[in-house]
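Hi everyone, sorry if this is the wrong subforum. Our group has a chain we'd like a structural model of before ordering constructs, and none of us has done structure prediction before. Sequence below.
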Amino acid sequence: AAVHHALGRGWQLNDNAIDAQWQQPLARVVRRCAQSDAPEALQIAGEVFGSWQFRRTDAWKEIQSALRGDFLGAAATMSLRRLGAYLTWLSWHRNSVDQSAWQQARDALRARFDRAADPSAQQVLGGHLLALLDAWPEKTQALAFLRHWLAVAKTAPESVAAKLFQRQLTGDWTAALEDEVFALVPRLQPERAEPIRRGEIAAAAARQLADRLLAIRVRAALGPVEQLEKLPRTERRDRTERARKAARQALAARFGAAAAAASKLHRPWFVLEQLGFDAEAGGDRSITVQRAAELLDAVPGRGDDEPSLNRILRARSAVTMAYAATRRDTAATVGDTVLAHLQRHLAADPKALDWRREIFRLLVALDRTDELTALLQKWIDAGEAQSEWRVALGYLMAERGKVAQAAAVFERVEKVDELSAEDYRTLATWYLVLGDDAHRATAQERSFEVSAEYQLGRRLQRLRGRLNRPGAGLSGAVATEDLAALRVLLRKASYPANYVWQVRSAYQSSKEFRILGTLPYGVIGHTTGRAYEFLARVGQVISQVHEEATCDSLIEAIAKLRATAARGVDRRGLLLLTSQVEARAAEVRNASGPHLDRALEALRGAAQGQWEPGERAAMADYLQSLGRMRHQSLGEEQLRQLSQLFAQVEPDDRLQVARALAQTQWRYEYRDQAIDTLIAALDDCRTRHDGVLPATSHAVFDTVLKYLRERRQFARGEALLTSELARQTLLPQRLWFVGRLDSHYIECLRKRGEVSLGSGVRLYRALLARLSERLWREPWIVLQAKFDGLCRLHDVAHEVGITAARRDLRAFADRQVPELAERFLLDRGAKLSRLATTLDKVLGGRVALEFLVRELETEPTWLRSVHREQWRAFHYQVAKFAHAGAGSLTGRLRPLVLGELRRDLERMNWRGSEMFFKNNRWFWHGGAGDFAEVARSVIAAHPKSEARVTYVARYLWNGLGEREAAITALRDLDRSGALLEGGRWQLANWLIESRQHAEAIPYLVALIGARRDRLDYRIALVRARQRTGDRKGAEELLLATAKRWEDKHWWHEHTIAELAKIAFDCGFFDHAASWYEAALRTNERLGGRRWNWRHTRTSYYGFLARSLAKLGKVDESIDAAAAAVVTWGDNQRQRNEAIASLRAALREIGDLDAYVARWDAKVARTGLDAPLIRKSVGILYLDRGATRQAIAQLRKARELQPADDEVHTRL
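Answer:
Right subforum, don't worry. Here is the predicted structure as tokens:
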């Protein structure tokens, strides 16, 4: 608990900084606990050391160095538990620790590992040493250590072998590597593993070995990817195929030799890989089939407890035979042989494998349709076939042109087993071929019915996206299949109401009336609650209809469903929907026919019949959701039905229906009836609950109070509240009613009403006394609400012009609040801030600021000890009010504000920065000079505190714009020897940003000397040298960096792009172009796996285009800029940006006619033209006044892309 408190954690305590008084004690806790072997002590040390708040302090940096020293000094002897803790706490990454320290730790662990006599200790130390080697990383050393560990392992050598096996398979191929991984396979087996487990390990190792060796062999044969990608596509493909064939031939021989020498456990899996490679490489397929058949025959027969591995071995043997038999240049007799083997096994042991599936796949691959048809028919006739074979027969018949028979097969399958969505779509296509539109529509709908709701929802989203595109909302844009999917979606959706807005959007975009015909399906088949929820929202769509004919079509669709509706809820819901549509039809312009009568008839019909439990309440909510009807007859019927429902509803739902009825009555201006309805319902509820209203009545009670106030019946509302309050005995209920009574009085004052306490000033006085008196005797939880009520009372009194409220509020703030605030405890700041808001509203910002200043001056000191000082709640208001002008308060405010600023800087944590940062809206300009002085004084008070000085310097730089002061602070710290690596890096960046490049160079050189593999350090130094005129030195460093990263195999996309960008910035455009091309190739291989690959690739193309333009390679530059446009796909905004870049590149062309001639020649040579290029060139011609040439280019653009509006406009 003490540690948590020091870290700023605990109950009602959560801070983002650690007080200075606790930093060193926490460091001592870490040091002491780290020297203990007790798990609890190490846990405490780890929690403190790993705390991000503690990691920001100087104490953390000191203890980190001390712990590293402790570790290096005692690594040979400390307990394994402590050893593991230290290695976990401390970072050993190459960018975080000196190489000498890392080497010392490595050597100490290696020595201890070599001395370890205990097997478990050896295992733990080996894992720690391997992690340390990986942290640098040193792959070669890690592999060497793993080999040594495997040679001397005292326990679990298989786990060490597995680590070495996995690492080698990710390396570059060599003959030695291949020999090693084959030799490791037997060593992967645990000594005491069960036979089943041993077999699984053998099978997995052989498969992984074959897969990875093929990949790395091919990669080695092809050479560097960068060189390969420069080859023409056909040559690259041929070279890749040759490399794969050679690798497969070599691996077939290698696995064959390994199988001959392997144990019985590994031999079959090696043979399978050998046969697979041999078949792929074009070996003798008959021999492959023969040997695979021998493997298959050798698998023991199926038993009740047969291992799954046997089934896998059978399946892979069968697949290998089938693969060999189906290669293009394989003799037909080989296929016959394989088929005979499979049929023999089917007859001998039909359950050992799914032999029918193997036979089916073989015959499909061999394209023996007649034989396959006969076989499938035989299985079906014998009654042995599952539906999947009937489906397969259907597809086969269709492929042979027997579409009618195929459809008949699918129809029989449908009767006994559900077809898949894909099968139904295929069946619909067959019906299209047969010209059977009715069955086609049914099949399409069934395909949607067996689809998941989310799939149909995505289809609706795609439809909306398609319709929302410019020019898409045309007649015919919504396909029949889309409508069928929408019908099914609304029918099967768990919450059909959730799709109403999407249906509305689709209809608004397309005005396709058939979309509306799907709406009735959101009513039928759903629960009562879901159906009525849908009906309540569907008016959003119907209100968009403006044609009578559309309404008639929708009514016709509803009528068809009503004819088949069996459930009462469905029938009633469809009638209600009919009423809505008919009512809308009566409202549209030039409407004809008795739509209003039919709407009324449907609404009345919906009230007939049996009601399900809870349906009356749902119906009442629906009727209320209709709002005020435009037609009197419908409104009368709406009210009549609600009254009838109120009379008939179940007792538990009576309040809900009463509220719906009253809200509707209120809309029709039957205000007194609405109030009477609610009061009657409350009386009934009270009677049913032993004379006391329950909490479930609160919503209805609030509604009646609202209506009474609207009718200015304040006294009646008061009587209702006081009488109910007298009945309540439970404290929560009493508090609720007391709060409502107070609010009622305040609203009465706002509306200038009268209650027993009086009106106007008299009511204000009485209410002020009532609330003020209760502030001192109510419990703490009630005090909060009463205080808020008192603030609200003064707000309202000020609004209605009671001048005494100003005086009373000032007196309350000056006389009562200082004592009252003691009762607020931890909420003191929040509550006083609320009062300051009222003071600002009633008396003005200057008075509110004065109040806040006084409270800050008299704040209890204990609040700071729990991080609840009032500044946390006041800082925004103080900043806002002071920004408007502190006036005479400036003298009192300044020391308070500066003190809080000092605390924030000392603790390195901003509790509120509105006043202190110049870019903020409420920055206090009058204190800017003092702010800088405070910052400098904090630096002076802690001249060797790297954490504080760096934090304050960042404030000077970012907050006040005092850049030279910030740089000076870090330079002084560096001269004292206290500036660490992070601070020196910050200083170097600031010097570069301030254009002091020469001064930055020594810092960067020193940083690189300590961390030679920090790419960001090197890039900064390249930039600094170039800016000082040392282009040669900058380029040499840039190229040396590229070479080192390539040699270290760190040549990844991010690295390439970073080097390309600095090359571009420094004017090394040849390197920039080369590296951006490399980054693009890497991104094209891997970029699609990232969410932002389009943005990244477009950026590369853009910089490549600019680099090529600087090199004078205009045509290549334009090609790159055009590729940036294509990369963005459908993202119109980003495409527009890329198009702007393309046009900028074109504007760089001096001789536009010459470029057009070159482009025409390229088109003639390749047959590929680009409408975007033509359009952009045409626009550029227009800008240059060459109208004839512009017309020629724009016409070509129009031919290539006739739908481009801009081209037509320009022409």
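For your construct planning: The chain has a mean pLDDT of 91. The first helix runs from residue 2 to 6.
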